[in-house]
Write a structure and sequence with these properties.
The structure is a homodimer.
Chain A lengths: L16 H15 L6 H8 L3 H8 L2 H14 L4 H5 L5 H16 L9 H4 L9 H27 L9 H21 L3 H11 L6
Helix pairs in contact in A: 1-2, 1-4, 6-9, 6-10, 8-9, 9-10
The first copy, chain A, binds a DNA duplex through α3.
DNA sequence: TTAGTTAAGTACCGGTCGGTGCAGAACTCT
DNA sequence: AGAGTTCTGCACCGACCGGTACTTAACTAA
Protein backbone atom coordinates (compact mmCIF):
# COMPACT_ATOMS: atom_id res chain seq x y z
CA UNK A 1 0.00 0.00 0.00
CA UNK A 2 0.91 3.66 0.10
CA UNK A 3 1.46 4.01 -3.62
CA UNK A 4 0.69 7.68 -3.19
CA UNK A 5 4.37 8.49 -3.80
CA UNK A 6 4.69 6.23 -6.80
CA UNK A 7 5.30 8.25 -9.87
CA UNK A 8 2.31 8.14 -12.20
CA UNK A 9 2.41 8.56 -15.91
CA UNK A 10 0.88 11.39 -17.79
CA UNK A 11 0.24 14.99 -16.99
CA UNK A 12 -0.32 15.44 -13.25
CA UNK A 13 -3.67 16.68 -12.01
CA UNK A 14 -3.57 20.41 -11.60
CA UNK A 15 -5.87 20.64 -8.60
CA UNK A 16 -6.41 19.10 -5.17
CA UNK A 17 -9.08 16.48 -5.70
CA UNK A 18 -10.01 16.42 -2.02
CA UNK A 19 -10.48 20.14 -1.84
CA UNK A 20 -12.49 20.12 -5.05
CA UNK A 21 -14.79 17.43 -3.63
CA UNK A 22 -15.19 19.37 -0.40
CA UNK A 23 -16.31 22.41 -2.37
CA UNK A 24 -18.67 20.40 -4.52
CA UNK A 25 -20.18 18.92 -1.37
CA UNK A 26 -20.94 22.37 -0.05
CA UNK A 27 -22.62 23.40 -3.27
CA UNK A 28 -24.82 20.28 -3.20
CA UNK A 29 -25.51 21.00 0.47
CA UNK A 30 -26.74 24.47 -0.28
CA UNK A 31 -28.49 23.80 -3.57
CA UNK A 32 -29.61 20.21 -3.52
CA UNK A 33 -28.77 17.74 -6.24
CA UNK A 34 -30.86 19.18 -9.03
CA UNK A 35 -30.46 22.78 -7.91
CA UNK A 36 -26.68 22.53 -8.24
CA UNK A 37 -25.70 23.10 -11.87
CA UNK A 38 -22.45 21.87 -13.36
CA UNK A 39 -21.49 25.47 -13.96
CA UNK A 40 -21.84 26.37 -10.28
CA UNK A 41 -20.22 23.15 -9.14
CA UNK A 42 -17.16 23.44 -11.33
CA UNK A 43 -16.99 27.16 -10.63
CA UNK A 44 -16.77 26.48 -6.90
CA UNK A 45 -14.35 23.60 -7.47
CA UNK A 46 -12.10 25.86 -9.52
CA UNK A 47 -11.90 23.46 -12.43
CA UNK A 48 -13.49 23.01 -15.83
CA UNK A 49 -16.26 20.61 -16.70
CA UNK A 50 -13.78 18.43 -18.57
CA UNK A 51 -11.59 18.02 -15.51
CA UNK A 52 -14.59 17.23 -13.36
CA UNK A 53 -15.74 14.52 -15.74
CA UNK A 54 -12.24 13.06 -15.95
CA UNK A 55 -11.87 13.00 -12.17
CA UNK A 56 -15.35 12.01 -10.99
CA UNK A 57 -17.26 10.50 -13.92
CA UNK A 58 -20.41 12.57 -14.01
CA UNK A 59 -22.69 14.67 -11.86
CA UNK A 60 -24.37 11.72 -10.19
CA UNK A 61 -21.10 10.08 -9.23
CA UNK A 62 -19.78 13.41 -8.02
CA UNK A 63 -22.80 13.60 -5.73
CA UNK A 64 -22.24 10.08 -4.46
CA UNK A 65 -18.64 10.92 -3.60
CA UNK A 66 -19.79 14.14 -1.97
CA UNK A 67 -22.32 12.20 0.10
CA UNK A 68 -19.60 9.79 1.25
CA UNK A 69 -17.51 12.75 2.29
CA UNK A 70 -20.48 14.25 4.08
CA UNK A 71 -21.01 11.05 6.03
CA UNK A 72 -17.37 10.86 7.04
CA UNK A 73 -17.16 14.57 7.85
CA UNK A 74 -20.08 16.78 8.88
CA UNK A 75 -22.39 13.84 9.55
CA UNK A 76 -19.90 11.76 11.49
CA UNK A 77 -21.61 12.88 14.68
CA UNK A 78 -24.33 10.31 13.92
CA UNK A 79 -21.86 7.46 14.22
CA UNK A 80 -19.94 8.94 17.13
CA UNK A 81 -23.14 9.40 19.10
CA UNK A 82 -23.69 5.65 19.11
CA UNK A 83 -20.63 5.22 21.34
CA UNK A 84 -22.12 7.16 24.24
CA UNK A 85 -22.61 5.00 27.34
CA UNK A 86 -26.39 5.36 27.79
CA UNK A 87 -29.34 5.58 25.43
CA UNK A 88 -30.17 9.01 26.71
CA UNK A 89 -26.61 10.18 26.12
CA UNK A 90 -26.75 8.71 22.61
CA UNK A 91 -29.97 10.55 21.85
CA UNK A 92 -28.63 13.80 23.26
CA UNK A 93 -25.31 13.55 21.43
CA UNK A 94 -27.11 12.69 18.20
CA UNK A 95 -29.41 15.69 18.36
CA UNK A 96 -26.75 18.10 19.58
CA UNK A 97 -24.59 16.92 16.70
CA UNK A 98 -27.42 17.51 14.28
CA UNK A 99 -27.79 21.04 15.61
CA UNK A 100 -24.06 21.79 15.25
CA UNK A 101 -23.86 20.36 11.74
CA UNK A 102 -26.98 22.05 10.41
CA UNK A 103 -25.98 25.47 11.74
CA UNK A 104 -22.33 25.94 10.86
CA UNK A 105 -20.87 29.43 11.47
CA UNK A 106 -20.04 29.54 7.79
CA UNK A 107 -21.38 27.18 5.20
CA UNK A 108 -24.85 26.05 4.24
CA UNK A 109 -27.62 25.62 6.80
CA UNK A 110 -29.55 22.37 7.00
CA UNK A 111 -28.61 18.82 6.18
CA UNK A 112 -27.27 17.65 2.84
CA UNK A 113 -29.20 14.40 2.99
CA UNK A 114 -32.47 16.24 3.59
CA UNK A 115 -31.95 19.16 1.22
CA UNK A 116 -30.39 16.92 -1.40
CA UNK A 117 -33.47 15.55 -3.10
CA UNK A 118 -36.58 15.41 -0.90
CA UNK A 119 -38.66 16.08 -3.97
CA UNK A 120 -37.22 15.65 -7.42
CA UNK A 121 -38.03 15.00 -11.04
CA UNK A 122 -37.80 11.55 -12.52
CA UNK A 123 -34.25 11.81 -13.84
CA UNK A 124 -32.81 12.04 -10.34
CA UNK A 125 -34.90 9.28 -8.83
CA UNK A 126 -31.69 7.31 -8.29
CA UNK A 127 -30.29 10.07 -6.08
CA UNK A 128 -33.63 10.42 -4.32
CA UNK A 129 -33.63 6.73 -3.47
CA UNK A 130 -29.99 6.85 -2.42
CA UNK A 131 -30.81 9.53 0.12
CA UNK A 132 -33.89 7.70 1.39
CA UNK A 133 -31.69 4.68 2.06
CA UNK A 134 -29.04 6.83 3.68
CA UNK A 135 -31.54 8.38 6.07
CA UNK A 136 -33.21 5.08 6.87
CA UNK A 137 -29.86 3.43 7.53
CA UNK A 138 -29.09 6.04 10.13
CA UNK A 139 -32.38 5.19 11.82
CA UNK A 140 -31.64 1.49 11.80
CA UNK A 141 -28.26 1.99 13.45
CA UNK A 142 -29.89 4.10 16.13
CA UNK A 143 -32.53 1.44 16.63
CA UNK A 144 -29.90 -1.25 17.10
CA UNK A 145 -28.09 0.88 19.64
CA UNK A 146 -31.31 1.39 21.61
CA UNK A 147 -32.05 -2.31 21.45
CA UNK A 148 -28.69 -2.94 23.02
CA UNK A 149 -29.58 -0.37 25.67
CA UNK A 150 -32.67 -2.38 26.57
CA UNK A 151 -30.57 -5.53 26.83
CA UNK A 152 -28.11 -3.75 29.07
CA UNK A 153 -30.92 -2.53 31.31
CA UNK A 154 -30.12 1.03 30.45
CA UNK A 155 -33.60 1.48 28.95
CA UNK A 156 -36.73 0.01 30.60
CA UNK A 157 -37.73 -3.48 29.51
CA UNK A 158 -40.94 -2.18 27.96
CA UNK A 159 -39.23 0.54 25.92
CA UNK A 160 -39.63 0.21 22.14
CA UNK A 161 -36.21 0.76 20.51
CA UNK A 162 -37.58 1.16 17.02
CA UNK A 163 -40.09 3.73 18.12
CA UNK A 164 -37.51 5.70 20.06
CA UNK A 165 -35.09 5.62 17.16
CA UNK A 166 -37.75 6.86 14.78
CA UNK A 167 -38.63 9.63 17.17
CA UNK A 168 -35.03 10.79 17.42
CA UNK A 169 -34.60 10.60 13.64
CA UNK A 170 -37.77 12.63 13.19
CA UNK A 171 -36.38 15.28 15.49
CA UNK A 172 -33.14 15.25 13.54
CA UNK A 173 -34.94 15.82 10.25
CA UNK A 174 -37.09 18.52 11.80
CA UNK A 175 -33.98 20.24 13.12
CA UNK A 176 -32.56 20.25 9.60
CA UNK A 177 -35.66 22.01 8.30
CA UNK A 178 -35.70 24.48 11.18
CA UNK A 179 -32.05 25.26 10.51
CA UNK A 180 -32.91 25.94 6.87
CA UNK A 181 -35.69 28.16 8.21
CA UNK A 182 -33.10 30.30 9.93
CA UNK A 183 -33.10 29.08 13.53
CA UNK A 184 -29.72 29.21 15.25
CA UNK A 185 -27.94 26.67 17.47
CA UNK A 186 -29.14 28.16 20.75
CA UNK A 187 -32.80 27.96 19.73
CA UNK A 188 -32.37 24.46 18.34
CA UNK A 189 -30.66 23.25 21.51
CA UNK A 190 -33.72 24.43 23.45
CA UNK A 191 -35.89 22.37 21.15
CA UNK A 192 -33.70 19.34 21.77
CA UNK A 193 -34.07 19.78 25.53
CA UNK A 194 -37.82 19.97 25.14
CA UNK A 195 -37.88 16.85 23.00
CA UNK A 196 -36.02 14.79 25.59
CA UNK A 197 -38.30 15.74 28.50
CA UNK A 198 -40.31 12.58 27.99
CA UNK A 199 -37.35 10.29 27.50
CA UNK A 200 -37.89 6.97 29.34
CA UNK A 201 -35.98 6.89 32.62
CA UNK B 1 -71.08 39.73 -6.09
CA UNK B 2 -71.89 36.44 -7.72
CA UNK B 3 -71.07 37.57 -11.22
CA UNK B 4 -70.31 33.96 -11.93
CA UNK B 5 -73.44 33.68 -14.03
CA UNK B 6 -72.91 36.96 -15.84
CA UNK B 7 -72.24 36.30 -19.46
CA UNK B 8 -68.63 37.12 -20.30
CA UNK B 9 -67.36 38.13 -23.67
CA UNK B 10 -65.00 36.10 -25.73
CA UNK B 11 -64.39 32.42 -26.08
CA UNK B 12 -65.14 30.59 -22.85
CA UNK B 13 -62.36 28.78 -21.02
CA UNK B 14 -62.30 25.18 -22.07
CA UNK B 15 -61.19 23.68 -18.75
CA UNK B 16 -62.03 23.78 -15.07
CA UNK B 17 -59.57 26.22 -13.56
CA UNK B 18 -60.03 24.81 -10.06
CA UNK B 19 -59.36 21.28 -11.13
CA UNK B 20 -56.33 22.39 -13.13
CA UNK B 21 -54.95 24.17 -10.07
CA UNK B 22 -55.55 21.11 -7.92
CA UNK B 23 -53.58 19.00 -10.34
CA UNK B 24 -50.77 21.51 -10.55
CA UNK B 25 -50.62 21.56 -6.75
CA UNK B 26 -50.12 17.82 -6.68
CA UNK B 27 -47.31 18.00 -9.20
CA UNK B 28 -45.54 20.68 -7.15
CA UNK B 29 -46.16 18.58 -4.06
CA UNK B 30 -44.47 15.57 -5.59
CA UNK B 31 -41.70 17.32 -7.50
CA UNK B 32 -40.97 20.54 -5.68
CA UNK B 33 -40.95 23.91 -7.37
CA UNK B 34 -37.89 23.49 -9.53
CA UNK B 35 -38.40 19.79 -10.11
CA UNK B 36 -41.82 20.42 -11.65
CA UNK B 37 -41.38 21.34 -15.29
CA UNK B 38 -43.95 23.28 -17.27
CA UNK B 39 -44.35 20.26 -19.51
CA UNK B 40 -45.26 18.01 -16.60
CA UNK B 41 -47.44 20.63 -14.96
CA UNK B 42 -49.50 21.42 -18.05
CA UNK B 43 -49.60 17.74 -18.94
CA UNK B 44 -51.20 16.95 -15.59
CA UNK B 45 -53.47 19.98 -15.84
CA UNK B 46 -54.62 18.82 -19.25
CA UNK B 47 -53.96 22.17 -20.91
CA UNK B 48 -51.29 23.78 -23.06
CA UNK B 49 -48.62 26.15 -21.87
CA UNK B 50 -50.42 29.02 -23.54
CA UNK B 51 -53.59 28.38 -21.56
CA UNK B 52 -51.64 28.09 -18.35
CA UNK B 53 -49.93 31.42 -18.91
CA UNK B 54 -53.21 33.08 -19.79
CA UNK B 55 -54.94 31.71 -16.70
CA UNK B 56 -52.20 31.93 -14.07
CA UNK B 57 -49.51 34.33 -15.27
CA UNK B 58 -46.37 32.24 -15.02
CA UNK B 59 -44.83 29.31 -13.17
CA UNK B 60 -44.11 31.29 -10.01
CA UNK B 61 -47.64 32.64 -9.75
CA UNK B 62 -49.03 29.21 -10.45
CA UNK B 63 -47.03 27.94 -7.51
CA UNK B 64 -48.28 30.75 -5.29
CA UNK B 65 -51.87 29.90 -6.16
CA UNK B 66 -51.15 26.22 -5.59
CA UNK B 67 -49.68 27.06 -2.20
CA UNK B 68 -52.81 29.00 -1.28
CA UNK B 69 -54.90 26.04 -2.26
CA UNK B 70 -52.67 23.78 -0.24
CA UNK B 71 -53.11 25.95 2.83
CA UNK B 72 -56.88 26.00 2.46
CA UNK B 73 -57.09 22.28 1.67
CA UNK B 74 -54.56 19.65 2.74
CA UNK B 75 -52.87 21.93 5.27
CA UNK B 76 -56.04 23.30 6.83
CA UNK B 77 -55.50 20.95 9.75
CA UNK B 78 -52.89 23.40 11.03
CA UNK B 79 -55.51 26.09 11.48
CA UNK B 80 -58.23 23.78 12.72
CA UNK B 81 -55.93 22.38 15.38
CA UNK B 82 -55.71 25.80 17.00
CA UNK B 83 -59.36 25.56 17.97
CA UNK B 84 -58.87 22.58 20.24
CA UNK B 85 -59.68 23.36 23.89
CA UNK B 86 -56.32 22.59 25.48
CA UNK B 87 -52.71 23.07 24.46
CA UNK B 88 -52.15 19.36 24.55
CA UNK B 89 -55.14 18.76 22.32
CA UNK B 90 -53.87 21.43 19.94
CA UNK B 91 -50.46 19.79 19.74
CA UNK B 92 -51.97 16.36 19.23
CA UNK B 93 -54.43 17.52 16.57
CA UNK B 94 -51.65 19.40 14.79
CA UNK B 95 -49.35 16.40 14.62
CA UNK B 96 -52.09 13.93 13.80
CA UNK B 97 -53.16 16.26 11.01
CA UNK B 98 -49.60 16.41 9.74
CA UNK B 99 -49.49 12.62 9.67
CA UNK B 100 -52.76 12.34 7.73
CA UNK B 101 -51.79 15.00 5.21
CA UNK B 102 -48.28 13.72 4.57
CA UNK B 103 -49.44 10.12 4.05
CA UNK B 104 -52.48 10.29 1.79
CA UNK B 105 -53.78 6.96 0.46
CA UNK B 106 -53.23 8.29 -3.01
CA UNK B 107 -51.22 11.34 -3.87
CA UNK B 108 -47.74 12.52 -3.00
CA UNK B 109 -46.12 11.75 0.35
CA UNK B 110 -44.66 14.53 2.43
CA UNK B 111 -45.49 18.20 2.75
CA UNK B 112 -45.61 20.63 -0.12
CA UNK B 113 -44.12 23.45 1.94
CA UNK B 114 -41.16 21.27 2.93
CA UNK B 115 -40.58 19.51 -0.40
CA UNK B 116 -41.25 22.69 -2.35
CA UNK B 117 -37.89 24.38 -2.15
CA UNK B 118 -35.80 23.42 0.88
CA UNK B 119 -32.71 23.84 -1.22
CA UNK B 120 -32.83 25.66 -4.51
CA UNK B 121 -30.81 27.57 -7.04
CA UNK B 122 -30.75 31.35 -7.08
CA UNK B 123 -33.57 31.84 -9.58
CA UNK B 124 -36.15 30.42 -7.23
CA UNK B 125 -34.96 32.25 -4.15
CA UNK B 126 -38.31 34.08 -4.09
CA UNK B 127 -40.18 30.79 -3.75
CA UNK B 128 -37.68 29.56 -1.20
CA UNK B 129 -38.27 32.65 0.92
CA UNK B 130 -42.02 32.40 0.47
CA UNK B 131 -41.96 28.89 1.90
CA UNK B 132 -39.68 29.88 4.78
CA UNK B 133 -42.20 32.56 5.71
CA UNK B 134 -45.11 30.17 5.33
CA UNK B 135 -43.53 27.65 7.66
CA UNK B 136 -42.50 30.26 10.19
CA UNK B 137 -45.97 31.78 10.19
CA UNK B 138 -47.43 28.45 11.14
CA UNK B 139 -45.02 28.34 14.07
CA UNK B 140 -45.98 31.82 15.19
CA UNK B 141 -49.67 30.99 15.21
CA UNK B 142 -48.97 27.91 17.27
CA UNK B 143 -46.88 29.98 19.65
CA UNK B 144 -49.70 32.47 20.14
CA UNK B 145 -52.12 29.67 20.85
CA UNK B 146 -49.80 28.23 23.48
CA UNK B 147 -49.33 31.66 25.01
CA UNK B 148 -53.08 31.87 25.40
CA UNK B 149 -53.01 28.44 26.98
CA UNK B 150 -50.59 29.72 29.62
CA UNK B 151 -52.88 32.69 30.29
CA UNK B 152 -55.83 30.36 30.64
CA UNK B 153 -53.92 28.21 33.12
CA UNK B 154 -54.10 25.31 30.73
CA UNK B 155 -50.30 25.21 30.53
CA UNK B 156 -48.10 25.72 33.63
CA UNK B 157 -47.02 29.29 34.37
CA UNK B 158 -43.39 28.43 33.70
CA UNK B 159 -44.05 26.82 30.32
CA UNK B 160 -42.35 28.52 27.37
CA UNK B 161 -44.91 28.88 24.55
CA UNK B 162 -42.34 29.73 21.89
CA UNK B 163 -40.22 26.77 22.77
CA UNK B 164 -43.18 24.40 22.77
CA UNK B 165 -44.39 25.75 19.44
CA UNK B 166 -40.96 25.31 17.91
CA UNK B 167 -40.80 21.78 19.23
CA UNK B 168 -44.16 20.88 17.69
CA UNK B 169 -43.22 22.51 14.39
CA UNK B 170 -39.95 20.58 14.38
CA UNK B 171 -41.89 17.37 14.85
CA UNK B 172 -44.19 18.37 12.02
CA UNK B 173 -41.29 18.95 9.65
CA UNK B 174 -39.67 15.72 10.74
CA UNK B 175 -42.89 13.86 10.08
CA UNK B 176 -42.94 15.28 6.57
CA UNK B 177 -39.46 13.92 5.92
CA UNK B 178 -40.30 10.55 7.45
CA UNK B 179 -43.38 10.35 5.26
CA UNK B 180 -41.20 11.03 2.22
CA UNK B 181 -38.95 8.28 3.53
CA UNK B 182 -41.82 5.86 3.25
CA UNK B 183 -43.20 5.61 6.78
CA UNK B 184 -46.97 5.09 6.98
CA UNK B 185 -49.60 6.72 9.19
CA UNK B 186 -49.56 4.02 11.86
CA UNK B 187 -45.82 4.31 12.39
CA UNK B 188 -45.97 8.09 12.37
CA UNK B 189 -48.78 8.14 14.92
CA UNK B 190 -46.57 6.11 17.22
CA UNK B 191 -43.86 8.71 16.82
CA UNK B 192 -46.34 11.44 17.70
CA UNK B 193 -47.31 9.60 20.88
CA UNK B 194 -43.66 9.27 21.82
CA UNK B 195 -43.08 12.96 21.19
CA UNK B 196 -45.88 14.03 23.51
CA UNK B 197 -44.74 11.88 26.45
CA UNK B 198 -42.91 14.83 27.96
CA UNK B 199 -45.64 17.38 27.34
CA UNK B 200 -46.05 19.70 30.35
CA UNK B 201 -48.98 18.67 32.51
C1' DT C 1 -73.77 39.83 -40.36
C1' DT C 2 -70.14 42.10 -38.41
C1' DA C 3 -67.09 43.88 -34.94
C1' DG C 4 -64.98 43.10 -30.56
C1' DT C 5 -63.13 40.06 -27.10
C1' DT C 6 -61.03 36.11 -25.10
C1' DA C 7 -59.17 31.30 -25.28
C1' DA C 8 -56.50 27.54 -27.69
C1' DG C 9 -52.91 25.50 -30.66
C1' DT C 10 -48.67 25.76 -33.13
C1' DA C 11 -44.39 26.95 -33.76
C1' DC C 12 -40.87 29.25 -32.07
C1' DC C 13 -37.48 32.22 -28.88
C1' DG C 14 -32.84 32.66 -26.35
C1' DG C 15 -30.74 30.45 -22.58
C1' DT C 16 -29.15 26.77 -19.88
C1' DC C 17 -28.93 21.92 -18.91
C1' DG C 18 -25.63 17.73 -18.53
C1' DG C 19 -22.20 15.88 -21.31
C1' DT C 20 -18.21 15.35 -25.22
C1' DG C 21 -14.66 15.58 -29.20
C1' DC C 22 -10.52 17.25 -30.02
C1' DA C 23 -6.14 19.51 -29.91
C1' DG C 24 -2.43 20.57 -27.19
C1' DA C 25 0.09 20.66 -22.71
C1' DA C 26 2.67 18.22 -19.16
C1' DC C 27 4.25 14.48 -17.39
C1' DT C 28 6.95 9.21 -17.25
C1' DC C 29 9.25 5.57 -19.49
C1' DT C 30 12.54 3.71 -22.78
C1' DA D 1 14.86 12.51 -28.13
C1' DG D 2 10.67 10.14 -28.86
C1' DA D 3 6.69 7.37 -27.68
C1' DG D 4 3.07 6.62 -24.53
C1' DT D 5 -0.11 8.40 -21.08
C1' DT D 6 -2.96 11.61 -18.65
C1' DC D 7 -4.92 16.10 -17.82
C1' DT D 8 -6.66 20.77 -19.46
C1' DG D 9 -9.24 24.32 -22.23
C1' DC D 10 -12.18 25.37 -25.81
C1' DA D 11 -15.80 24.78 -28.70
C1' DC D 12 -19.63 22.41 -29.36
C1' DC D 13 -23.73 18.84 -28.94
C1' DG D 14 -28.86 17.76 -28.66
C1' DA D 15 -32.39 18.25 -25.23
C1' DC D 16 -35.00 20.75 -22.42
C1' DC D 17 -35.91 25.01 -19.72
C1' DG D 18 -39.50 28.91 -18.97
C1' DG D 19 -41.86 31.98 -21.82
C1' DT D 20 -44.14 34.18 -26.13
C1' DA D 21 -45.91 35.82 -31.05
C1' DC D 22 -49.24 34.76 -34.01
C1' DT D 23 -53.05 32.56 -36.10
C1' DT D 24 -57.39 30.54 -35.52
C1' DA D 25 -61.56 29.18 -32.83
C1' DA D 26 -65.52 30.36 -30.03
C1' DC D 27 -68.06 33.27 -27.85
C1' DT D 28 -71.06 38.26 -26.86
C1' DA D 29 -72.82 42.68 -28.36
C1' DA D 30 -74.61 45.59 -31.85
Amino acid sequence: MSDSRRAVMGRPRGFDIDQALERAMRVFWARGYEGASLAELTGAMGITKTSMYAAFGNKEQLFRKALQRYGAGPAAYATRALEEPTARAVALAFLRGAVRTTTPPRGPSGCLTVQGALASSDESRAIHDLLVDWRNDAGVRLEERFRRAVDEGDLPRDADPRRLARFIMTMGFGIAVQAANGLGPAELDEIVDTALLGWPA
